[in-house]
Amino acid sequence: MDFTLVGIIGVVTLLTLLVMGVPLAINFLLVAFIGIAVLLTPGSAVSLLGDTMYTAIASPTFTVLPLFVLMGALAAASGFAERAYKGLYRLSAQLPGSLAVATAFGSAAFATVCGSSLATASVFGRIAYPEMRRYHYDKRFALGSIACAGSFAAMIPPSGMFILFSIFTGVPVGQLFIAGIVPGILTALVYAGSIVWRASRDPSLAPRMEAEQRIMLRDRLHGLLDLWQILLLGGVVIGGLYGGLFTATEAGAVGAMGAMLLGAGAGPLRSLPRLRGALRESAGITTTLFFIIIAALFFSRFLGLTRIPFEITSFMTSWDAPSWMVLGLILVIWFLMGMVVVPAAAFALTLPIVFPIVVELGYEPIWFCIVAMKMCEIAGVTPPVGLNAFALAGAAGKEVRISEVFSGVWPFVACDLFILLLLLAFPAITLWLPQSMM
């Protein structure tokens, strides 16, 4: 049978099974194993699977993942998010929509010690949503601000998705971490500006609170003190990466140890059940991600045998069309795929194909990864499979319907599209920090 035809059948089967709800890793393994067995032999498929399992896990990049996952789990168990949210609320008091503004910046701050957007959305769903409802914030406005702010963890280091990008593309993970800082902060600022503008125009979205009028200068200084743990831990990790003091793996180890010491010093991690829970959570997340990555890399090898990536790369690079049109087509495909499959599946399926095309067209790999991550943020909150929205709906309580979360995200998606246009028009926003790394 023709190799390319088998590859096309495999891709169609993969997408069909994803839509039917087959677990991502099992889907990749099943389709790739059967495809390789058809193209070669069942023994070759077994041999290639064993080789993939070894070579994938043996990569030094993989050591980064469990360390930063552990750092995020320890930071969440230590209550860093709660303190950051309270401190930032004191700082933003008297602004229209101050609780939502605190959520935007609090999510950005917590993202510096937690690389999971799902975890960030869940944590702030438990912290911020009850406070907003207590002060009669519009339900959809509150849910939309929390769900979209949670997506910051996909961009602000140490992002778990950047580690996956590094594995699939070979771009150094440390440079990706640093490249995400400015776009992440810029997104938080645009969100905050949008919240203040909307709350000023329609006070019913975020009623002003009398208690805010009594917040004095010393209260704001206390708010800064509530941020010291996150500022210290995030500053050491990101500053060490930027200054060349640490490799990404060493930064993960320093971050995990710092989160452990700060959490024990503050008290929460002195509780053995809470510490055990954080360790169990990080182990579960790490093993799940490892399983998905190995399966995705195995599927990528199957695609390589079919020559589909090579054929598409040759066609797209010889296509008589401007390079920006090719890039736009890739982004549109990602946007559509993000509406029906989870971002990790979309990137695992497409990156082995589209990344060589983008590099061949002359685009900067780091810039392209940041643009792709912005698409990942948008996919995380848009229906029907916006994982951040589902995570928030589960964390906020039984009275929250997923349709209410989705109806509240669109003004923030518009902000994300604005940031995406800025990143496309001005690549220096992304590139100037990694290019200045020591």
UniProtKB/TrEMBL annotation:
Question: Is Nucleus there in the keyword field?
Answer: no
Q: Which residues form the TRAP C4-dicarboxylate transport system permease DctM subunit domain?
A: 11-429
What InterPro entries would the database entry show?
A: DctM (IPR010656), TRAP_DctM (IPR004681)
Compartment annotation: Cell inner membrane
Assigned keywords, A-Z: Cell inner membrane, Cell membrane, Membrane, Transmembrane, Transmembrane helix, Transport
Q: How does it sit in the membrane?
A: Multi-pass membrane protein
List the Pfam families hit by this protein, alphabetically.
DctM (PF06808)
Looking at the UniProt entry, the stretches that span the membrane are: 5-22, 28-50, 62-81, 101-129, 141-168, 174-200, 221-245, 284-304, 324-357, 378-397, 409-433
Origin, by domain of life?
A: Bacteria
Q: Say where the protein is mainly found.
A: membrane
Record function comment: Part of the tripartite ATP-independent periplasmic (TRAP) transport system.
- Please state which protein family the record places this protein in: Belongs to the TRAP transporter large permease family.
Q: Which NCBIfam families match?
A: dctM
Q: Which PANTHER family does this entry report, sorted A to Z?
A: C4-DICARBOXYLATE TRAP TRANSPORTER LARGE PERMEASE PROTEIN DCTM (PTHR33362:SF5), SIALIC ACID TRAP TRANSPORTER PERMEASE PROTEIN SIAT-RELATED (PTHR33362)
Q: How does it assemble?
A: The complex comprises the extracytoplasmic solute receptor protein and the two transmembrane proteins.
Name it.
TRAP transporter large permease protein
